[in-house]
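ok new one. same drill as before - structure tokens go in, u give me an amino acid for every spot. 164 of them this time. try not to just spam alanines like last time pls lmao
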């Protein structure tokens, strides 16, 4: 099926985090493509990727990067598609550098910034589902089911002494 989401990351080392986005998109049956693209290391490729995204049928871009994480912002600079940014937890500064690099965009070029690390990676996929669900009823239904299952799983185990 034609990918609706483009999942990009600054380095193959980000996959440990970004695999959670891909897994969640899989669980929601959202077709997506995955590629390493870096604003720093492959700037021309990034511009080509993002400039052609819309005509290739992508409707949401999810970009994860760590450290001087300029990838989501530079992607947003080249497209009006929604761009969701995931700050990857960096070794030196624990992801605070990534978060601040992504979140503080100048007015006019928005990036929807998620939490640092795995939670942000999962939530980016769910956020993409919310956006796509406005147009695709199947995705809306699948997302509602995901949320219902999550609620039921919590309600089924209210006593924390029973373990996770
Ligand atoms: N932040 C960026 C960008 C970018 O923003 O374009 N390109 C690579 N990186 C980040 O550098 C970190 C270390 O990369 P390596 O592990 O390859 O040295 C990764 O977290 C990556 O996202």
């Amino acid at each position: 099926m034609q990918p609706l989401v483009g999942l990009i990351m600054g380095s193959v080392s980000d996959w440990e985090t970004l695999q959670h986005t891909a897994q969640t998109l899989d669980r929601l049956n959202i077709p997506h493509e995955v590629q390493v693209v870096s604003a720093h290391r492959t700037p021309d490729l990034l511009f080509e990727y993002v400039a052609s995204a819309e005509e290739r049928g992508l409707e949401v871009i999810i970009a994860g990067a760590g450290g001087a994480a300029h990838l989501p912002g530079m992607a947003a600079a080249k497209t009006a598609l929604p761009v969701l940014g995931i700050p990857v937890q960096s070794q030196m500064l624990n992801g605070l550098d990534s978060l601040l690099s992504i979140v503080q965009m100048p007015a006019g070029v928005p990036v929807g910034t998620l939490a640092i690390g795995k939670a942000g990676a999962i939530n980016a996929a769910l956020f993409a589902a919310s956006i796509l669900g406005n147009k695709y009823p199947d995705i809306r239904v699948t997302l509602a089911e995901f949320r219902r299952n999550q609620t039921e799983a919590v309600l089924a185990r209210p006593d924390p002494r029973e373990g996770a």
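The first helix runs from residue 15 to 27. and btw The longest strand covers residues 60-66.
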